[in-house]
UniProtKB/TrEMBL annotation:
GO terms for molecular function: zinc ion binding. Residues 76-111 form the Zinc finger DksA/TraR C4-type domain. Residues 49-76 form a coiled coil. PANTHER family: GENERAL STRESS PROTEIN 16O (PTHR33823:SF4), RNA POLYMERASE-BINDING TRANSCRIPTION FACTOR DKSA-RELATED (PTHR33823). Keywords: Coiled coil, Metal-binding, Zinc, Zinc-finger. The keyword Metal-binding applies. The keyword Nucleotide-binding does not apply. This is DnaK suppressor protein. A zinc finger (dksA C4-type) spans 81-105. It comes from Chloracidobacterium thermophilum (strain B).
Amino acid sequence: MDADFLSQQREKLLQKRRELQLALNLTPQDESSEEVKDPLDAAVTYANRELAARQAEQYRQLLQDVEDALERIADGTYGICQGSGEEIPRKRLEAIPWARYTAAYQEKIERGLVSE
């Protein structure tokens, strides 16, 4: 990987990290002390809390993936598939800067043929 490409990818990752940190800071906190009397309102409130919790977990996981990618840039392993050891194509990294695997290896993971 050339230095210019790595610099561009690092900037993309830093921007994504800022976006995710902001989104996590804006995620509503649990308001379980709030009592809802109407059963329908309670169901909607519960569903909204569950959705917010799942979304926050997805943001945290993506943030970890971004942090891991920044570490790989720092240690010189960015762009190398963590499963096969092959180089991840530049187009894939441009689309998904935090990619850890080639598309072929990712597909094997999703099919259950290999583990992460």
